[in-house]
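CORE FACILITY INTAKE
Project code: CF-77B
Contact: R.S. (postdoc)
Sample description: multi-component assembly, two entities in total
Requested service: structural model of the whole complex
Turnaround: standard
Below are the sequence entries exactly as provided by the requester. Do not edit them.
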Amino acid sequence: MNIHEYQAKQIFAQYDVPTPKGIIANTPDEAVRAAEQLGGNIWVVKAQIHAGGRGLGGGVKLAKSIEEVKQLAGEILGMTLVTHQTGPEGKLVQKVYIEEGADIKDELYLSVVLDRAAEMPIIMASTEGGMDIETVAENTPEKIIKVQVDPSIGFQGFHGRELVFGLGITDKNEQRKMIDFASKLYSVYMDKDAEMIEINPLIKTGAGDFLALDGKMGFDDSALGRHPDIEEMRDISEEDPDEREASRYGLSYIALDGEIGCMVNGAGLAMGTMDTINYMGGTPANFLDVGGSANAETVAKGFEIILKNPNVKAIFVNIFGGIVRCDRIANGILEATKLVNVHVPVVVRLDGTNAPEAAEILKNANIPNVIPATDLADGAAKAVAAAKGEL
Amino acid sequence: MSILVNKDTKVIVQGFTGKEGTFHAEQCIDYGTNIVGGVTPNKGGEKHLGKPVFNTVKDAVDATGATVSMVFVPPAFVADAVMEAADAGIELAVIITEGAPVKDMMYAKQYATKHNMKTIGPNCPGIITAEECKIGIMPGMIFKKGNIGLISKSGTLTYEGANQVVKEGFGISTAVGIGGDPIIGLSYKQILPMFEADPETEAIVMIGEIGGDLEIQAAKLIKEQITKPVVAFIAGQTAPKGKRMGHAGAIISGSAGTAKEKMDALKAAGVKVVVSPADIGKAVAEVLAKK
């Protein structure tokens, strides 16, 4: 689960990770009140969406007067922001964060993520803040400092020294502040079961203080149960409504732009099915994993969600029953055809546990739209043909 | 011969009397797995599925001499269960449970390694040595005995792969579902050399997915150490690029973990890479015919 910048900064504040002062606003008038409350004579109006690259997309603007705050908030609120992380459809801005202007001397980069290979958190830092860090990693990898932190010992002094010397910080006072900053950020990462924390840029002010000017946080979904405070920060408007609806039924759904709807058990086989459709000259309309406990209701729901997509010309149901019993899926398909108007051809391949019983059920039901398939290759070929109107 | 487990392996079940534990333990017993007991706190002394129940893993190991544990406890208790198994001298824990927090696994895996306990999973179908020992949730009947070793991140693709191998007239020595979580136990890197050393395994099927770089590491290892033919499929060639929030995850592995990158690395290592999982069986027949 991801959260907004302003929420990440609320969490930082709980750990005394320094951030500029800011207030969230839903309307231009609220933005004006926020700016007045913050005081000063320069403010930043920042679009709050779950994606990076907001500045380049026009979602972060500097205001030099209260009038300008109102004008910019009016422009940004309600705009559909397109960045390299939102996809071409962009994201609607519903909240802006009004932040006091900061005196920026240097822009740095700092993040904490899981190093899968080392199986421990890793802190990454760079003097090249404010830039696209992937480009930095590709062109000048030596400018990214990586420090692994073994959780059994936690963040130690030497981790901090590796960071500050790596960043070329020579002033002792600044060294102390940066080590303190990184240490606290590591605590946030561990305590909150974060998946990643990224601050880009982390700025050094003219006075030699370090501030988190930005903040992105993602969390381990499996650990949310023990963090009700984080769960409360969930912004459902940032999630795809179909994906959300699917997840309520234990289905994992992602819409794609092809023509063949897919219903598969297991994420790996679901991706493999999409790959096979593609290989045979078709295009998958979605990824849909019905999970391990599929029944008539979830299968019916799956059909309903797939068929909401007007581009779908055929459906391929590909189930390899392990825990999932094929006869149950077959009954689910029968049930679904009663509940949902399945108006496109449905190619069905059921293999594994109770597959012969399932074949018998479908044969006896004799539904005109249902086309049985013997294996994955056969099923994919038939689905591709059906989508082209050749079956 | 086989790898890691066989008909003599003594297995206990942690989370034995729960709904999932009961259902799958029963299936394993039916398959022929030598399940010698189980652990459920406060049910020590009882019998379940005709096997003794113990309060702690230590009690179970003392009484039965079990060396392998199949873990079915709920996600929040997985780390505790795995560490208990390691502490009690279990040699291999097969963790089936899905949804264990990553941080928990970080600690649990470290502790297991310190105690020389191997782990498989979490969030995996388990391990099966065909017609001898099934420790997990896979449908046993598709795994006919034979000479093909199988390693897979994905559960249902394991079944798909095994089924095709069997339909081509071959069989499985051992199949291991390693799971796709960020932190897992045994991976390609450890299991490929086991298959290389197993006299009964003649060829290896390796099934991977997008994300992470385990398959890239495996390609390196195959080039250097594996002489047996390997067939590979990487799921997710058509998967959309996720709408990520940050970039940190991609930078850390030094690659985006795309299917293409992984397929190219495996091809360069001499692996027979198939574009569709529907071709796994045929590819196995091909590489064995060449031998």
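Facility notes:
- Chain B touches chain A through 61 residues (CB under 8 Å).
- The first strand of chain B starts at residue 11 and ends at 14.
Invoice: internal transfer
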